[in-house]
């Protein structure tokens, strides 16, 4: 009997491996991916009643299929999602998680949503593997089919074929965060509708926990499934509860900042044991409510070792509290302007230089199609690595700069991008000198991509020197990576995207025309080497649509 069990397990393991190799997945989309391991979870003494409501929903066999947590930018949705996903994982309920993120290509759209979820489900539930394998064998192109077909054949039908265990119906919860960051509105409505179909399952109780901003396409999607979901609006939670939670978080973080600073400072330079004091802490709470992102950002700003002055940093933040000369600003201004205004304390010549570097480096970071590590970022922008490091050094409270040179630079929160590119700031550059012109920045990035690809013989026939046609990519991956460094790979994949977003047309003799005349076939060859040839069809369609 033991041998039989071992044999079944072995077969299932092989089946799992085969299936997982056929399912394309979005890198870093899972809540517990390496890239996200340092992202915040809720403090144990915050969000208690909210988390209890979510737990009750998950445990209620007669509850709605979907729990929709919505709230405006910065109210803590993703932190709650990570906490909920961890809680469900600890209890063995989490089937899969997918965290959308605008600006990270595979996580910014729904193309790999259901294949990623299917892969996670198979990895957790070996019995699913044979059923998903059948779906792929019956239709080898299923992973690129419409979302409806993917969901039904890779998730719904395989789950429906599972047999209930001795414990009764198996409970599985999906966690999908930041649905509003999915780039196609129609996909959002389809996703909501498809998830509501899980009620048809009998052997498995499949539920979905979703978070988003309350954007119109999402509200319309939920209207389509009226009565099949439970919702909770974060910014409508009673103010005293939000105030208490933010106070707990701030007091905890400020105490850590004080203790860490004092541990490294001489006795005569240490912060008082009651720093920053009850009144100051309360002022910060009032400035923050209802935005947890304010509390998190200003704590990183106060802690920032680039300034090595927590008390001075705190004073800068307090300049933006109600009743001061800066009081006529909104919450996001109060979150990000203390960080940015700190950069403009030098001479006029210094300010001009800082703003120019900011537009080049930070303006590009917030509009990249996917994040890059510092070295390829510097290569793409055509600036020294040292210049990128220097410009980012005082911005660690809003931009995550990993210690590892291989890890990409990311903004902490989408609201920072929203703040910088807000069209309402376009004609107020005296007040908002850091405003980023989206079209201009995309054009600059497209030009840099084409310049990078056109330099010397970077693009040429058989650029990797493989010589023999038909060589498998997997056999020469090291050669490809050496011949096509990350900045060049980015330029190949995304120059069309940036040109399209710049709203520039293509004319005879212009930069794009010259590039395509010389390098069209070389470019397509590189896309093939990198496994992106299927994307080239959409790129060419986009180029045709931009012809003047």
Automatic annotation (TrEMBL):
InterPro entries: NACHT_NTPase (IPR007111), NPHP3-like_N (IPR056884), P-loop_NTPase (IPR027417). Keywords: Repeat. Pfam families: NPHP3_N. The keyword Repeat applies. Residues 65-214 form the NACHT domain. The keyword Repeat applies. This is NACHT domain-containing protein. It comes from Staphylotrichum tortipilum.
């Amino acid at each position: 009997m033991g041998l039989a069990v071992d044999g079944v397990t072995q077969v299932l393991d092989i089946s799992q491996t085969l299936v997982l190799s056929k399912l394309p997945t979005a890198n870093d989309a899972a809540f517990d991916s390496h890239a996200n391991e340092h992202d915040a979870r809720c403090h144990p003494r915050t969000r208690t009643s909210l988390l209890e409501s979510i737990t009750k929903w998950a445990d209620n066999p007669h509850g709605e299929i979907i729990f929709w947590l919505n709230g405006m930018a910065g109210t803590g949705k993703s932190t709650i999602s990570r906490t909920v996903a961890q809680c469900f994982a600890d209890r063995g309920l989490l089937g899969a998680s997918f965290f959308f993120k605008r600006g990270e290509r595979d996580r910014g759209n729904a193309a790999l949503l259901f294949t990623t979820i299917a892969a996670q489900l198979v990895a957790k539930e070996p019995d699913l593997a044979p059923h998903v394998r059948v779906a792929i064998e019956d239709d080898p192109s299923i992973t690129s089919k419409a979302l409806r077909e993917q969901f039904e054949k890779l998730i719904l039908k395989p789950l429906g074929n599972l047999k209930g265990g001795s414990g009764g119906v198996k409970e599985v919860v999906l966690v999908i965060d930041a649905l509003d960051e999915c780039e196609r509105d129609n996909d959002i409505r389809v996703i909501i509708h498809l998830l509501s179909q899980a009620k048809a399952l009998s052997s498995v109780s499949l539920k979905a926990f979703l978070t988003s901003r309350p954007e119109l396409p999402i509200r319309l999607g939920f209207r389509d499934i009226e009565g099949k979901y439970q919702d909770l609006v974060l910014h409508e939670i009673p103010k005293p509860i939000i105030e208490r939670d933010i106070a707990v978080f701030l007091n905890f973080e400020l105490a850590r900042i004080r203790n860490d600073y004092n541990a490294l400072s001489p006795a005569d330079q240490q912060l008082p044991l009651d720093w920053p004091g009850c009144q100051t802490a309360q002022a910060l709470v009032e400035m923050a409510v209802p935005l947890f992102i304010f509390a998190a950002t200003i704590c990183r700003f106060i802690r920032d070792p680039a300034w090595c002055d927590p008390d001075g940093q705190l004073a800068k933040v307090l300049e933006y509290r109600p009743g001061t000369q800066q009081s006529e600003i909104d919450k996001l201004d109060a979150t990000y302007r203390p960080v940015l205004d700190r950069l403009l304390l030098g001479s006029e010549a210094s300010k001009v230089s800082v703003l120019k570097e900011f537009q080049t480096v930070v303006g590009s970071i917030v509009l990249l199609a996917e994040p890059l590590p510092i070295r390829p970022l510097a290569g793409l922008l055509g600036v020294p690595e040292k210049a990128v490091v220097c410009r980012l050094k005082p911005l660690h409270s809003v931009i995550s700069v990993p210690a590892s040179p291989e890890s990409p630079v990311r903004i902490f929160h989408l609201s920072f991008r929203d703040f910088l590119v807000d069209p309402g700031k376009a004609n107020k550059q005296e007040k908002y000198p850091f405003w980023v012109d989206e079209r201009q920045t995309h054009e600059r990035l497209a030009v840099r991509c084409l310049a990078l690809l056109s330099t010397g013989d970077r693009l040429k026939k058989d650029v990797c020197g493989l010589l023999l046609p038909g060589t498998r990519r997997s056999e020469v991956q090291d050669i490809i990576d050496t011949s096509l460094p990350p900045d060049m790979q980015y330029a190949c994949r995304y120059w069309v995207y940036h040109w399209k977003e710049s709203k520039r047309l293509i004319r005879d003799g212009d930069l794009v025309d010259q590039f395509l005349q010389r390098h069209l076939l070389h470019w397509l060859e590189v896309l093939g080497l990198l496994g992106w040839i299927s994307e080239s069809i959409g790129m060419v369609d986009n180029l045709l649509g931009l012809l003047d």
